Amino acid sequence: MCLLFLENPFIIFSFNEILKNEYVIEYNLTGQRQFSDPKIYDAGGDLNKRWYVYYSYRDPETGKLKRQPAIYKGANRFKTKCEHLEILMAFKSALKNLLSQGYSPYENYKVTEAKIEKLEKAKTTELEK
Asked: Nearest to residue 88, comparing CAs of 33, 48, 50?
């Protein structure tokens, strides 16, 4: 299966573009990551405690990573560990995707949307060339 992946040049090009874009977005000019990878807090497997996804984002004023509010979004309504992990893994993946696209908790959502649209337009014009 890996050989098929490597034989398709379009897939490699797309993969390389994704890596390049994520590198540019995640790191600023000083080489520091803008955010930490989202993580799941599972309370040591205790279903009586709250489970959530958490991450840190670089504060534009201090330049330091600052822990952001935890994301619960109803994950604690589920009854089993498997269900908790399944929904939190989906949240974690979605958050990682948003952060990689340029989402910032310190910006107005309209500014973030405009930034993401600009990146998408740049990608499409690059692919058309």
From this structure: 50
